[in-house]
Amino acid sequence: MELLRRNLFADDRLHAVRAIAFIALIAAPATAQPAQNDRPLQISVEVSPLRVEISTAPGGTTTQAITIHNTGTAPVRVRATISDWHLSMEGAPQFAPAADARYSASSWTRLAPPEQVIDANRDGIVRFTIAVPADASAAGYRTGVLFEFGPADGAPAARGHDVVVRSRIATLIYANVGNPAAAVDLADLKARTPPDQPAQIVAVLKNTSRRTVRTRGTMTIFDSAGAKVGVIAVPDVPVLPESEREIAIDTVDRETDRRLPPGDYRVEVRIDVGMAAVLVGETTFKVS
Q1: With pLDDT > 70 as the criterion, what percentage of the chain qualifies?
Q2: What are phi and psi of 59, to 5 degrees?
Q3: pTM given for the model
Q4: What is the CB-side half-sphere exposure of residue 116 using CA atoms within 13 A?
């Protein structure tokens, strides 16, 4: 396998960072301050799977099921809708109409049922069907199923002083049509230190292809004498077609919480995104 090697140097500017490898969004909109006797209505559900990856050809049709398990003690009403989404630079899902509809699979997707009531400790099933047009180009398309939960009667205003905080969970769907070639560049590699946190190495990947890729690889840490002091896995995250995103790699092993002693360090990052060449970059950082 060929190695694509570039020397990339540390950026000493400090930024707040949020390292996110999310495939679901949980949102709680602001509510008015409850009165003293208001009682919160607690809803507890599990959705599985939270990520679906489909490989198909133009003209293909795929149907799959999503399971919603009501782990609470009362029935819950579930509303399912189809939603476009994209990823922020840091990798957080953003649910909004697609600014670039070329990669949206929402118009190809149908749900059944769009609404249902699930009794306590019971499962509900929502099926989605994606019918890819026969003239669809080879590319990585996407859509999502957004679930909203509420009281079974559907009329929270009629429940006296009950306070309902609605929540949403999404299943992200990747519809990979054909097999377009990947074209990804390691645009930057820099060290930054979040407040009161160990340093992170941030790789900026630029995907110029029409394919969604996922990352894998390693980051090797060397001390000032050149001795290897640790190897950390690169997070497995998606990079959407024709997009750029950051991947934050911790310099601390989260399983052991083993921290580096003060000193100067060099890192070599190797990232495999499914191309013939492995992306390789180097940079330095300091532990105070």
Answers
A1: 81
A2: 85, -5
A3: 0.80
A4: 18
**Strand 123-131 vs strand 76-83: parallel, antiparallel, or unpaired?**
unpaired
How far is the C-alpha of 271 from the C-alpha of 277, rounded, in Å? 9
Question: To which H or E segment does residue 219 belong?
Answer: strand 216-223
173-206 pLDDT, tens digit per residue, is: 999 999 999 999 999 999 998 777 889 999 999 9
Rounded distance, CA 217 to CA 209, Å? 20
Q: What DSSP state is assigned to residue 177?
A: E
Indicate the residue type of 232. I
Q: How confident is the model at residue 23 (pLDDT cuts 50, 70, 90)?
A: very low
Q: Is the pLDDT of residue 238 over 50?
A: yes
Q: How many residues would you count in the chain? A: 288
Q: How buried is residue 1: exposed, middle or buried, by Cβ count under 10 Å (0-12/13-18/19+)?
A: exposed
What domains can be seen in the chain, in order of their start residue?
A: 2-18+181-287 (2.60.40.10), 39-177 (2.60.40.10)
Question: Tell me, what's the pLDDT at 41?
Answer: 62
Nearest to 118, CA basis, from 77, 165, 151, 79: 77
Neighbours of 183 (CB within 10 A): 16
β-strand partners of 207: 184, 243
